[in-house]
Amino acid sequence: MDIAVDRQDDRVIVTPMGNIDTPVAEAFQQRLLAVIQDHTVPVELDFAAVPYISSAGLRVLALAARALRQRHQVLRLTQPTPLVLSVLNLTNFTSFIEVSA
Amino acid sequence: MKILVVDDEPDLEALVRQKFRRHIRSKEFEFIFARHGAEALDYLRADRDIELVLTDINMPVMDGLTLLTHLGDLNPILQAVIISAYGDMQNIRTAMNLGAFDFLTKPINLDDLTLTIDKTVRQLHLQKQALHEHDQLLAIKHELQIATHIQQATLPRRFPPFPERHEFDLYAEMIPAREVGGDFYDFFLLDETRLGLVIGDVSGKGVPAALLMATSRMLVKSIALSQAHAAACLQQVNRLLAADNDSMLFISLVYGILHLQSGALEYCNAGHHAPYVLGADGTLTALPTTRGLVLGLDEQFVYTANTISVAPGSTLLLYTDGIPEAFNRQGAIFSVERLEAHLRQAAGQAPQELLQGIVQAVREFAAGAPQSDDLTLLAVTYGGASAR
Fold first, then answer.
1. CA–CA gap between residue A71 and residue A51 (Å, rounded)
2. Which residues does chain A have within 8 Å of residue B294's beta carbon, measured at their own beta carbons?
3. Whole-model pTM?
């Protein structure tokens, strides 16, 4: 899967492109956790180009959220597509990570 | 490695013993000599460790080509190299077609003999490695079968589960996907008047999911028996699951307590699809969410419960996402909307009939597309406190 990483002054924006399901979850996990490890500023996920996320993908979000929590930061996810937002609502991940339009 | 040399003339034996004396001394090769095909077969049947056969073609009793036809039955990785007269293309082709790996021509060139044996030995090593990897794959497959078995065997599957109870009729079903998922259901009488109902779905697939599913199910049941309230139960389960959850696997789950005297249902939903209440008249209500996070992620999360009233004759339905997310060959999903439409026209059906009808509707929709996730359902029809 394609993942863009944009370093800004106060945060890093990670933009995955495509469905995040079992076949790509591993690659997404490695990339995202590496970005978190390589920076001290908060990490933000731009999900505008993610039509679907499976439970394997949610697990990666949980791993990232935990890594950030350990340094007292919150994982922020922006621009979720309708299907992704419904999954985040159903699982109540919206109370575990910060989701905004 | 054991190598069988078959030739009716004794000079080949002398040649081999001389050429490979170092290999023989270091026990890298062990040579066995036979004078014709029949004697060679006797050796091969007696010693299954022989992996390479070097054989002449023209011999008394049984010739080399006939010997080749018997090798396949003996040892699947056995390799044969034949020795033929120079230019005898006819026999060489026949031998190769019978499965010989290579050939040498007489008079034997010693360097060529060494090269050919080395090459055949390398081939044998490759084959053995492939066979070993194949065995490992079989072992993994077997492990997955065990995971499926864990998932299946621990679920209660005797219906009716409480034949002496008349206040409710209960049926549940879990149809596992080919790749092991982590769905489960459970039900238990907490005491004379309260029935516990659980449906859950562990994230991920395979052995880790099956193990976590078994753990979660036991945790919920054992804590439920000592906790009067649904939210307190899941809060405790969540704390235990989240404590050492390095892999961040999680579980979506609904736990409900049906009060058999009053029809009150207290439930707590941890990130799972909302259960339905289907009235005898076809009215369908999705239970309002209690906004619980999936279990296992946040030790500090505070769970809350909600209570609704289930009218006698109504059926409570719990299910996992394998139902709405079942897809057909065009990639369309069954969807919550189709499930709800099906339920509305299925009012009045007993739990078993209802569940089988849903599974059939999903199967008809999928129309042969492979089942990617477990299909799990639990239905209870509440008959009322005085039902007989």
1. 30
2. 91-93
3. 0.75
